[in-house]
Design goal:
3 domains; D-Maltodextrin-Binding Protein, domain 2; Arc Repressor Mutant, subunit A; elongated; five-stranded mixed beta sheet; alpha/beta
C-alpha cells in the first residue's frame, strides 16, 4: 500500500535534489528515507531514481509518479485545511516577499501567522518580484507580497498599502531649494532597481510615459545597497520616503522634489486562483492587517 509518508519522501527528494537534504528536511535518517523509496519501487515494480548519477535524478516513471504525488499531497493539504481546526493544522506555508517587506513588517506578519496557525511551518523567501511571480506560477510558493503589477486571471491579488517613493541623493548633489525637472536627472547617474523589481518596472514604464531618457544608470537589486550608494554620492535614486525619514531628518539623505512627482507603488498579497480553498485567503487577510511600510526594522528601538 502506498502511504503519504512514502509520497512525501519522493516529493522532498525531488524538491531538494538529494536523499540527504530530504532526510534533513523531514528530520529523519537517510536510511529511513531510502527505505521509503525502496518500498515505493517494490510496490510499483519500477526504478524511480537513476542510481548511476551522483544527484537524485528521477527516471521517466519516477517523474510520472512525482506529478501524481504532487497532486495527491495538494489534495490532502486542502482537505486538512478545510476540515482541521487552525490550532491543530499541520502543513507548510511557502511565503515570498520582496526586500522592503522583509525590512519592515515581515516579523509582525510571521508572528500573526504563528498565532493563528501554531503548527504551520513557515518557509519564507525574499526575492525580486519577477522571481516571486515565477515561483508562484510554478507552484513553488503559496502566497507572495510584492508591488501590484499583475493583471492575470490565474492569480488572486488583494491590495495592501501603497509606498510613497521620492527621489533622494547625497546632500548638495542636486538643488534642495527648488523643484527639479525630470529632464535634469539625465545629467547625473540614476540608481535604479531594474525591470526584475516590481517597483523598478513600474518606474521604468512611468519614465518612458514622460519621455525621459536616462543615459547614465546603475542597477542594484538590493535596497540597502541602493541606499548606501545614494548616501555615498554615486547617484540619485528613488527610495521609500517614510521608512527612510530617519536619514532625511538627520541630513544624511536629501529629498529631491521633482515635477511631476513619483507615483506611489501599490503593494498586493497574491496567490493562485486555483488555491482559493484552504488557508491562503486568511493568510492574505493577515497580511492586510499587519502591512506597515512606515519604519525600517533597524531604525526601531
Amino acid at each position: 500500500m502506498v502511504t503519504f509518508k512514502q509520497m512525501e519522501a519522493l516529493f522532498w527528494i525531488a524538491e531538494t535534489g538529494s536523499f540527504e537534504a530530504a532526510a534533513n528536511h523531514l528530520n529523519m535518517s537517510q536510511s529511513a528515507i531510502s527505505k521509503r523509496i525502496q518500498e515505493l519501487e517494490d510496490t510499483f515494480e519500477v526504478q524511480l531514481f537513476d542510481r548511476s548519477k551522483r544527484n537524485a535524478r528521477l527516471t521517466e516513471k519516477g517523474a510520472e509518479l512525482l506529478d501524481c504525488t504532487r497532486e495527491l499531497l495538494e489534495r490532502r493539504d486542502v482537505l486538512l485545511e478545510r476540515i482541521s481546526s487552525q490550532n491543530v493544522l499541520v502543513r507548510r506555508l511557502r511565503l515570498g516577499v520582496t526586500e522592503l517587506t522583509a525590512l519592515t513588517w515581515l516579523p509582525a506578519f510571521i508572528d500573526a501567522i504563528r498565532q493563528a496557525y501554531p503548527k504551520v511551518q513557515i518557509e519564507p523567501t525574499v526575492e525580486l518580484s519577477s522571481e516571486l511571480l515565477r515561483k508562484l506560477e510554478g507552484d513553488q510558493l503559496d502566497v507572495i507580497v510584492m508591488p501590484d503589477v499583475l493583471d492575470d486571471v490565474r492569480f488572486v491579488s488583494v491590495p495592501l498599502q501603497s509606498v510613497d517613493n521620492t527621489w533622494m541623493c547625497a546632500p548638495g548633489m542636486l538643488p534642495a531649494d527648488r523643484t527639479v525637472d525630470l529632464t535634469e536627472l539625465a545629467q547625473v547617474t540614476v540608481l535604479t532597481q531594474g525591470a526584475s523589481s516590481g517597483t523598478g518596472l513600474i518606474y521604468e514604464r512611468w519614465l518612458a510615459l514622460h519621455d525621459i531618457q536616462l543615459p547614465r544608470t546603475l542597477t542594484s537589486h538590493n535596497l540597502l545597497v541602493q541606499v548606501g550608494l545614494t548616501i555615498s554620492g554615486i547617484g540619485v535614486s528613488y527610495l521609500p520616503q517614510n521608512c527612510l525619514s530617519h536619514l532625511t531628518g538627520r541630513g544624511v539623505l536629501q529629498v529631491v522634489r521633482t515635477l511631476p512627482e513619483l507615483p506611489p507603488i501599490q503593494y498586493a498579497a497574491i496567490y493562485r486562483a486555483d488555491r482559493r480553498h484552504g488557508i491562503n485567503p486568511h493568510i492574505v487577510e493577515l497580511a492586510s492587517q499587519h502591512c506597515d511600510f512606515a519604519r525600517l526594522l533597524m531604525a526601531m528601538g
